[in-house]
Amino acid sequence: MTMKHIDIFDQVIRISAETFEVDESIVRSNRTSDNIPNWDSFNHFKLIAAIESHFCLEFTTDEILEMLSIEQIVEVIGQKKEVGC
Fold first, then answer.
1. What's the distance, CA 2 to chain centroid?
2. pLDDT, tens digit, 9 for 90 and up, residues 27-58
3. Which of 24, 49, 74, 85 could disulfide-link 17, Cβ–Cβ 3.0 to 4.6 Å?
4. What angle is formed at CA 59 by the lines to CA 74 and CA 19, rounded to 5 degrees?
5. Cα separation, 42 vs 64, whole angstroms
């Protein structure tokens, strides 16, 4: 991971933990929708909305559907031309 991806990764971990109401260590060790408590379809959309707001981005439907792990989320954010407000 590049430094940009590491910074994005840390921010996504924090936002995910807040959204799912779990400790950051749980998100860091599990990292997928199948393994993180409270990562259901409703909270997935809450997570996406929080990330879009935090990074000032908008995701396509296809991007939203493929972001089922922390790594996938970081990758999609990293592919966007401009990250940040």
1. 17
2. 999 999 999 999 999 999 999 999 999 999 99
3. 24
4. 60
5. 13
The pTM is what? 0.89
What domains sit in the chain, N to C, each tagged with a CATH number?
Answer: 3-79 (1.10.1200.10)
What is the amino acid identity at position 45?
F
The span from the CA of 25 to the CA of 28, in Å, is 5
Q: For tokens 């990293």, name the residue.
A: 78
Contact 28, 12 (CB under 8 A): no
Secondary structure letter of residue 69 according to DSSP: B
Nearest 5°: the CA angle 74, 75, 79 is 115
Residue 40 carries which DSSP code? S
Sign of CA dihedral 16, 56, 78, 67: positive
> What Cα–Cα distance (Å) separates residue 85 from each residue in 39, 73, 74, 82?
26, 18, 17, 9
